[in-house]
Amino acid sequence: MIKEKGKQARLAGRPLGSARHICAFFRSTAEKYDVLGSFIMEGFAQDDKAVHVIDPARKIEHCRCLENLGIELSEALHSGKLDLMGWDDAHVRHGRFDQKEMLARMEDMFRRNAALGFGMTRYIADMEWSQAAVPGARGLIEFEARLNYLIPKYRDTVVCTYDLARFNATTVMDILRTHPMAIIGGILQENPFFVSPEEFLEEPPEA
Length: 207
What we know:
Layout: E1 10-11, E2 14-15, E3 21-26, H1 29-45, E4 49-54, H2 59-68, H3 73-79, E5 82-86, H4 99-115, E6 121-126, H5 140-150, E7 157-163, H6 169-177, E8 181-184, E9 187-190, H7 197-202
Parallel strand pairs: 3-7, 3-8, 4-5, 4-6, 6-7
Antiparallel strand pairs: 1-2, 8-9
Helix pairs in contact: 4-5
């Protein structure tokens, strides 16, 4: 059971419950920041930890969007309230995706941030790296399923963002099946397509 402390966190129009592994589908960059902006700002107001994983080519654009939200970027980075990294320093370290290593590093991060006194880690990751020719990228969906074993052990929130223009319908459905909550049309909702990790991981691989 997740023990809440401090103010109630909200995302995309509703309070966060105990299910905090969320897929968020967007059709534009503007829509993404419109939906996630208040969640990001709330985190800074509540002294939570922000971790943003983005396309390395979009770092300047992302920083500009954060500043447009009213975030003092230099202060946030120097105080340790914000970790901003390209996905080449996260999911695609050393040019490949190693899901076991990534899961271990995420757990270390959750533990470290809690030890530093942050009430919650608000982890937001762009997932378009998985559409490139990255060794190991086919393990994305299994990684998303296994995150459902990790996240409930902590009180942190993980938002995996997906550009709908970059993912086909089959992959979108698999993404939905591995996230208990989803943001669709700008609204956070319980995901009726979600399958427990036990059931999902027992399914035979596609031929």
